[in-house]
Specification:
With 267 residues, this protein is mainly α. 71% of the residues lie in helices and 0% in strands. It contains 13 helices and no strands. The radius of gyration is 25 Å and the shape is extended.
Length: 267
């Protein structure tokens, strides 16, 4: 029986059918047929970044679109896995369903939780009893190496904090940041570039720790906010220069700085 793809219902099963058709060895799409888990993983990373941008700018239409793209990438991974006879989408769904039920013992079991903190403690206790966690030799084991440097820093700091290796106050971390900045300045004054690089790394690490300690936003979120702010202000500079007929390359730092200050004070 021929499938009428244009009339498929909006379900995950329909998405699987579409992707399987695109992967058909004889009549599939030339691009989709050659994709691997590794190439798809790169696409998934890009789609996640686009969804996060839509989320942070509160663009709900884009959020809906990007979430669909992200879901497609997740299902695509499962379709390829099934082709290679490793596991199926049903297996992945079964795993996550069981995990959610197992780790929410305060909902589906005999544990009791009054707060989010209680929930985290229950979650961690149950995780520690699972097979893949029992094989870990260090509190820092099991953190994905593929995380960004800032995310990885926050993860290892959070793990260390669980063992009591943590700061007592935000002010203490700021004092440490001042110390690292002073050491960086000393390395610069000595023209010791290797040590200056090391101190810059320490500064980034302390900043990630300060962000983690504040428990408001992650370092990545804060940096994306600043990136977006810089982009918007630089766009203003470009637009103003274009309005005046001045090429960006020949505007000069003084004019560009003046326009930057204008951009900062715009409402």
């Amino acid at each position: 029986m021929t499938t009428n793809f244009k009339n498929l219902p909006p379900t995950v099963d329909s998405l699987v059918v579409i992707l399987q058709r695109l992967r058909d060895p004889e009549n599939g799409c030339p691009w989709d047929k050659i994709q691997t888990r590794e190439t798809l993983a790169r696409c998934m990373t890009e789609e996640l970044a686009e969804y996060l941008e839509a989320l942070e700018t509160r663009n709900t239409a884009a959020m809906c679109d990007e979430l669909g793209d992200l879901l497609m990438n997740v299902v695509f991974q499962a379709v390829v896995a099934e082709e290679e006879k490793d596991f199926t989408l049903r297996d992945a769904l079964d795993n996550i369903n069981r995990k959610l039920i197992r780790r929410h013992a305060h909902i589906f079991g005999d544990e009791h939780a009054e707060s989010a903190t209680d929930v985290v403690q229950i979650w961690e206790k149950i995780k520690s009893q699972e097979k893949d966690h029992q094989s870990r030799k260090s509190l820092l084991d099991g953190i994905p190496a593929e995380l960004s440097g800032l995310n990885y820093a926050e993860k290892i700091q959070k793990r260390a904090a669980k063992a009591g290796f943590d700061w007592t106050s935000q002010d203490a971390i700021v004092a440490k940041l001042d110390e690292e900045v002073a050491e960086f300045k000393t390395a610069l004054a000595r023209h010791d570039e290797e040590n200056a690089d090391e101190e810059l790394g320490d500064i980034l690490f302390v900043i990630a720790n300060l962000t983690r300690f504040r428990k408001r936003r992650t370092s990545e979120e804060l940096l994306r906010m600043t990136n977006r702010k810089f982009t918007e202000r630089f766009h203003y500079i470009e637009e103003e220069l274009a309005r005046r007929g001045i090429p960006v390359e020949s505007a000069g730092i003084e004019l560009m700085e003046s326009l930057w200050q204008e951009a900062k004070h715009r409402k």
